[in-house]
Amino acid sequence: MTKPKDARIKIAIQKSGRLTEHSLELLQRCGLKYTRGPDQLIAYGENMPVDVLMVRDDDIPGLVRDDVCDLGIAGMNIVEERRLHFLERDPAQPFRIVRQLDFGHCRLAFGYPEGGSVLSKADLAGTRIATSYPSIVRDYLAREGIKAQVVEFSGSVEIAPSLGRADVICDLVSTGATLAANKLREGETILESTAALLQTPVAVPEEKSAWIGRLLQRVEGVLQVRGSKYIMMHAPRSALAQIAALLPGSESPTVLPLEGRDDRVAVHVVCRENVFWETLESLKSIGASSLLVLPVEKMLA
Ligand code: PRP
Ligand code: ZN
Prior knowledge:
- The protein has three domains: 9-103 and 195-225, D-Maltodextrin-Binding Protein, domain 2, CATH 3.40.190.10; 106-193, 3-Layer(aba) Sandwich (D-Maltodextrin-Binding Protein, domain 2); 229-295, Alpha-Beta Plaits (2-Layer Sandwich).
- Helices cover 28% and strands 32% of the residues.
- It is built from eight helices and 16 strands.
- The protein has helices at 20-29, 60-65, 76-89, 134-144, 177-181, 206-226, 240-246, 277-285, and strands spanning 9-14, 34-35, 42-45, 50-55, 71-75, 96-100, 106-113, 128-131, 149-152, 168-173, 184-193, 195-199, 229-236, 254-258, 261-271, 289-295.
- A seven-stranded mixed β-sheet has the order 2-3-4-1-5-12-6. The chain has a five-stranded mixed β-sheet with strand order 9-8-10-7-11. Strands 14-15-13-16 form a four-stranded antiparallel β-sheet, with helices on one face.
- Helix 4 (134-144) links the parallel strand 8 (128-131) and strand 9.
- The structure holds 1-O-pyrophosphono-5-O-phosphono-alpha-D-ribofuranose and zinc ion.
- Residues 17-18, 57, 155, 171-178 line the site of 1-O-pyrophosphono-5-O-phosphono-alpha-D-ribofuranose.
């Protein structure tokens, strides 16, 4: 018999860090309302059978692999590190990477001490590399045929060279401020990262999987909406093909007559990409006027 608590979907997200706010916001946009007391590590969904567990990001892939959580949101840096780690022990894929999300952009890159002898990856042979991502770095070194020593640090990797514990580092870079503050120059990127949505590889009960399906469809909708704009304009009827070419994803626009004008029409399109000023200027140059770009609130394909 299934215990009632097992009927609820558990989603692991980062407790505090660069992904926390965005992860909660994504779930809210999917319609989730939750209560969360101060310092509480579980937020209970009020209107869906969904609970959000606030955990250390490094633990998220393992929680999803072990089916403690059905879903998880973590940076690809951590997802890939843990994936390689688990694969060394068990060839089965530890979790499903459902899709990459549109936040948490950063990169895993080398940091070389300013004024040091390592200028690029060509100088890495024989060095000690400090990192919190030993599996990714070893995998990279093996692929590049570089023989170097990986020194594992769980945090504060940037200070390893000045402590004499390593020659270079490989760590997450977002703005680059941490590297600069530690007199390190950014080197080659070995992984471009965004947040990703993970799903357990374990089969779940039917009632639960139906809700997971709905949630994943809503996530898809939220991401599409964020990248989409509704555009309205007046334009020469003869320019319709040119307009479609300028606006990706606008293959079948709504074309409406304008009172008293045979040559010009009103055009409404959903564009599945952000619309930049340059595009509006191009539209204007082919005769469009009264251009309006509106955000899309919800979308269900
Ligand atoms: C990362 C990384 C650096 C910092 C880089 O840590 O370890 O310290 O961010 O960011 P910057 O280029 O904008 O200065 P993070 O905040 O992700 O913490 P964690 O590694 O402990 O999860
Ligand atoms: Zn972390």
